[in-house]
């Protein structure tokens, strides 16, 4: 599903170049749930953005679902993101002037006549059926993140890219969000999750450790014993 081949990313700053990623090689199979951990500034979010076509590698090759993102133009990348990827961010990024229903419907790539009914269906699934006409400021942080997840999933993506999705949530709300991600994974979806939190990483099949822009190691989640 995701292949990074010797990927490096360097940013130019007033103080000189910043090497966010250096020679990263990573393979994520379809249907895997991968957590990426590491200290602040180690390149976690940069890795996620490159996997989502929201940035361009300085060198190397990024392929997602068979598409070479390093060779794709802006229009092709925009279409690919809309059709194949769902993004979930720590800060929610909901439009404050739209209702919950319209925030989710606005992300739909389907027929305009079906966008709002589909959005209502998704929100009902995420236990937000009584919040359709509310605006984001009227919701708790946990509810806003569930709205963001409904928006991310409205087009039936095969891949979810999540950047600290539980970072602003209390433990109970975090568990609800993680269970929704786990349900997507159980249905065959692929997840790449950036997190500082062990609670979130515990849901993953594998945890990748980044340090100074390089993969330092990885660990697999122990599988439950079967009788």
Key structural traits:
227 residues; Rossmann fold; 4-stranded antiparallel β-sheet; alpha/beta; 6-stranded mixed β-sheet
What do you see in this structure?
- The protein is an alpha/beta fold and 227 residues long.
- The chain has a single domain, classed as Rossmann fold (3-Layer(aba) Sandwich).
- It contains seven helices and ten strands.
- The strands form two sheets. Strands 6-7-8-3-9-10 form a six-stranded mixed sheet, with helices on both faces. Strands 2-1-4-5 form a four-stranded antiparallel sheet.
- Helix 5 packs parallel to helix 6.
- It is globular and about 50 Å long.
- The model has no long low-confidence stretch (mean pLDDT 90).
Q: Summarize model confidence as the mean pLDDT.
A: 90
CATH homology superfamily name: P-loop containing nucleotide triphosphate hydrolases
In CATH, what is the class?
A: Alpha Beta
CATH architecture: 3-Layer(aba) Sandwich
Radius of gyration: 18 Å
Indicate the percent of residues in helices: 25-40%
> What's the total helix number?
7
Distance between the termini: 32 Å
SSE class: alpha/beta
Low-pLDDT stretches are none
Strand order of the largest sheet: 6-7-8-3-9-10
Number of strands: 10
Q: Tell me the domain tally.
A: 1
Shape: globular
Order of helices and strands: EEEHEEHEHHHEHEHEE
């Amino acid at each position: 599903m995701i292949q990074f081949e010797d990927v490096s990313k360097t940013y130019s700053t007033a103080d000189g170049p910043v090497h966010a990623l250096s020679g990263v090689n990573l393979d994520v199979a379809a249907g895997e749930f991968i957590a990426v951990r590491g200290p602040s500034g180690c390149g976690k979010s940069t890795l996620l953005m490159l996997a989502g076509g929201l940035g361009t590698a300085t060198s190397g090759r990024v392929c997602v679902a068979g598409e070479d993102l390093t060779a794709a133009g802006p229009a092709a990348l925009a279409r690919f993101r809309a059709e194949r990827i769902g993004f979930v961010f720590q800060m929610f990024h909901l439009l404050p002037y739209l209702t919950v229903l319209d925030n989710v419907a606005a992300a739909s790539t389907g027929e305009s006549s079906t966008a709002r009914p589909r959005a209502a269906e998704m929100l009902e699934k995420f236990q937000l059926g009584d919040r359709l006409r509310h605006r984001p400021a009227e919701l708790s942080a946990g509810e806003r993140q569930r709205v963001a997840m409904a928006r991310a999933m409205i087009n039936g993506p095969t891949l979810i890219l999540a950047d600290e999705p539980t970072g602003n949530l209390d433990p109970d709300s975090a568990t609800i969000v993680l269970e929704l991600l786990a349900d997507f994974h159980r249905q065959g979806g692929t997840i790449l999750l950036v997190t500082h939190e062990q609670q979130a990483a515990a849901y993953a099949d594998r945890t990748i450790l980044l340090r100074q822009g390089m993969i330092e190691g990885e660990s697999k989640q122990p599988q439950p014993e079967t009788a």
